[in-house]
Amino acid sequence: MGSLRCVDGTSLTVRPVAACDRRGHPFEIRLELHRDGSPFAAVGPGCAYFLDRAAERLARARAEGDGPDPEGLLPAGELFAFRRDQRSRGAGEFLCVVRDAPEWVPEGDPSGRGDWRVVRRAVVEAWDGGGRGVRAVLTSAEITDFVRTVLAEAGRTGLEPMTSRVDRRNLETSRN
C-alpha cells in the first residue's frame, strides 16, 4: 500500500485492487483509499495504465532535470486524475497536479535577511463521495516513491507488467 501524510496530519493509504474480467483474470486495477485506516473513497478501474505513464514522466523529469530546487524535479501539469467508475464500488476522486509556489528561504541571500524562491511540488488530493477532501504536498522523490510503491503492490494482484517501461529498461541495462 502506498501511504501519504496529509497536510492536516491524517494518513491516506492507497491500496490497488485487481479489476477482473468475467473469467476472473485481472486486466486493470482500481484504487481503494483509506483515511486514518477508515474507508474514504474508491476510484477506477483504469489506474494502472495512468500510474505507469506518471512513473515514466517522473523518471524522465528526475533524470533530465537540474536547477536550484533538487526536490522539485517534476514534469509540469497533471500527473494523474482518477474518478469513480460506474462499475466500481464507492465514490471519490484522486488526483495529482504539479504546482509552482513561492517559498520563503530565511537565509537565502548574503545579507542574511532571506529571500523568496519558487519551488515545484506534487499536490495530491483525494475526495470522498460527500465532498470531504485531503491534500498532501510532496517532493519529487516522495511522489516517485509513492507511485512506484502503488505499482509494485498492483503487480502483486496478478496484473503484469506493473513497472513502467523506463524502470524495465533500467533493470535490463543494469543486468547487462
From TrEMBL:
It comes from the Bacteria. This is Uncharacterized protein. It comes from Actinocorallia herbida.
